[in-house]
Amino acid sequence: MKRLSYVILFILLANTLSAQQLPLYSQYLYNKFLINPAHAGSDGFTSLNITAREQWVGYSGAPRTYSISWQTRFLKKGYEIRQNVFNKTVYKPKSDGKVGFGFYLFSDKNGLIQRTGLSTAYSYHMWIKDYTQLSLGLALNGYYFTANVTDKNFEDPNEPWLSDNLRRGVFIPNADFGVYLLNPSFDFGFSAQQLFGSSIVIGNFGTTKYKMYRHYYMFGSYNIKSGNNNVIQPSFLFKTSEELTPQADIGVTYIYDQAFWSGLTYRTSGAVIANVMFRYVPNKTDKLSMYFGYAFDFTSNKIQSATYGTHEITVAVKFGDNSKRYRWLDRY
């Protein structure tokens, strides 16, 4: 009887995963590469991001996500011909680069299911106007699924779940595609993930299938300047899948001197997210910046009474001259 209850729990968790197949983040605004491969290298930085997310702390079997991502833009050295003030032709060195690259690794545990994902992304950036950059990105990735079932009730050799492929581990290849538009005043992006729509057969007799549904993201933000160093940034994110389970985030962030961020976001699934991030520059001559962020999710669902909320921490390092990272500041 106890074994049966575990199997039922396993099936219920599989159904739950259909609603949250991909890792869920609250600080994606600070690292849009997590949801769109076209973002890789779009800002001209080489950056390394580490994120740890503990969802519904205190609730047994709650989702836990840990990720590390790296992205860069490949620059090539060249020269351009210009006329100086004396009407003399001169050759001025410049840097140019249209290709970006990114790497993303995550571990996501939801109940009995452990998922490890690996993704490599290629992006191409082009200028459609003097101050507007259009980026296209493609990512090839894969997910390794395992069921963490160690209870002695599964040691029965006649138990059909014992030799199940999901318990032994299965690798599923996939691909993502993204479009990203960047401007000094706004940004906008669209991405489609899990394009292959693969399925995993659960059980030796193929009684249950876990399908990798395609997910679609659309996001954007707009910068409203107030004074020299203050920016108010309203933003949105809309996410849906083939299951037609839409979810939207609507938020606003206050930015001071590109060194401090503080914001609130409402998620239509029934959560309010508070986040804060600050930048630390150890030495300006090193062209290196460090970022530290924290987010707290408070949900209005009944599960909140049994948990201590959801916590997410981000640590990032960015390499590059902050004052010359965009074309409109003569970077490319």
The proportion of residues in beta strands is: over 45%
The CATH superfamily bears the name: monomeric porin ompg
Total number of strands: 17
If you consult CATH, what is the topology? Porin
The best one-word shape is: globular
Contiguous low-pLDDT stretches (5 residues minimum) are: 1-19, 326-332
CATH architecture: Beta Barrel
Whole-number total of structural domains: 1
Structural class: mainly beta
Number of helices: 2
Helicity, in percent? Answer: under 10%
What is the first-to-last residue Cα distance? 66 Å
Cα-atom radius of gyration: 23 Å
Helix/strand order:
HEEEEEHEEEEEEEEEEEE
Q: What is the average per-residue confidence, as pLDDT, rounded to a whole number?
A: 79
Numbering strands along the chain, what is their spatial order in the largest sheet?
A: 1-2-3-4-5-6-7-10-12-13-14-15-16-17
For this structure, what is the CATH class?
Answer: Mainly Beta
User: Main β-sheet: number of strands, strand sense, barrel status?
Assistant: 14 strands, antiparallel, barrel
